[in-house]
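Human: I would love a firmer grasp of how sequence relates to backbone shape in proteins. Could you go through the record with me and say what the backbone is doing? Here is the record:
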Amino acid sequence: MTTLRNIQGCRRASAALVLGAAALLVCACKVDRTGYDPDTPLTFDPSLVSAPFGVDVWEYPEGGDIRESTVFLRDAVVVQDGDVWVPERAVLWPSRDRRLCLLAHAPYGSASSVTLDRGVEFKGVDAESLTEELLYSDFVEGASKGNGGVIPVSFREALCHVDFRMRTDAFPSEKG
């Protein structure tokens, strides 16, 4: 009968071999998520609004300037779908290295123009015949799909600030 005399030495060598193989597997199993870019639906989280609203969205490169932006959505209708607000026609976020900026208005179709330079404009509005409040959003920039694809939109009332001018026939030296 043959006996192995150095059994502990064999066990140590086997254990070292197993540990070395495990270490190689751990190093080889590193997950690289830098290229991971899932399809994410574009959604909104508006304040002060309960009916469909309009949104204009521009996209630009991450770390870039808004002046480099291109139109992503023009005058899109945003509607409530359960607990979320989404464009009427489903839209996915652009790639993860792109950022979005936007301006919104409510109710949908009430703005006469929406531009990056001038913002949201309401022209020729008959304030007496309005059935809903005119709202416009703050400018939102730098939105990324890293926050789950949801863009918060804060609305403001459009008719809460009124500018008017006065004129007088008095001479500059006269005081009243």
Summary: DSSP finds one helix and eleven strands in the chain.
